[in-house]
Amino acid sequence: MAVFVSIPTILxxxxxxxxxxxxxxxxxxxIIDDLDEHHAGIKARLVTxxxxxxxxxxxVNDEDVRFAGGLDAAVNDGDTVTILPAVAGG
Amino acid sequence: MGGFRTMDGVLVIRRDLVEAMVAHARxxxxxxxxxxxxxxxxxxxxxxxVPMVNAARSPTFYxxxxxxxxxxxxxxxxxxxxxxxxxxxxxxxxxxxSRTDIRLASEPDAHYVLVSxxxxxxxxxxxxxxxxGRVTEEPVEVVESYxxxxxGADDVPDCx
Lengths: 90, 160
Fold this sequence. Notes:
Chain A is α+β, with helices and mostly antiparallel strands. Helix content of chain A is 18%, strand content 30%.
């Protein structure tokens, strides 16, 4: 089993256009490290100085990881991780 | 940019959708209003008006609430839709993307529509592409119906 990661349009340049990719890991941080091994450069778009970017929203199933430990959020086999850049501005 | 769709350089949009964006912007003034007009993936045709809550409730900033954002994108995925238009208002400045708008723009295929409500008598509505920090303004063509608007080869109903 694996974890399914939904990739937003703006990051699909790293995944050869794929909307969903598989990954493995027990925490969101491990998932992102594994993603970066197969899709170089994606981690830098999500993480700076060991934390998620303020304007990138990441969900494990239905839960925003901001309220579930951030990069330490637990992920189980079969879960869906959804990455969505904030829709925001001034 | 590699991978992203080439642009036609015009936003063709129904009048009722323009009116809905302006009405939302007026209603939320002096805070910024924001939302999406979703449409089928491909023809670049805005169809489904989705006003969003500005979680920042601010006259100088907007952000879709995190849970709403997830629900919106799931719904669009189910319907095979994309955010054809992403709109927000400027309540004290012109309808031109701010530095923050440019920095945070993350839908290279979307038309970013700005509505300025600073003049209570007359709004200003303009549209842009924002790709990797580069802003390109495009004309807005308001139509009564998409039926006879030449929005792309797939949509031309006659002659062929």
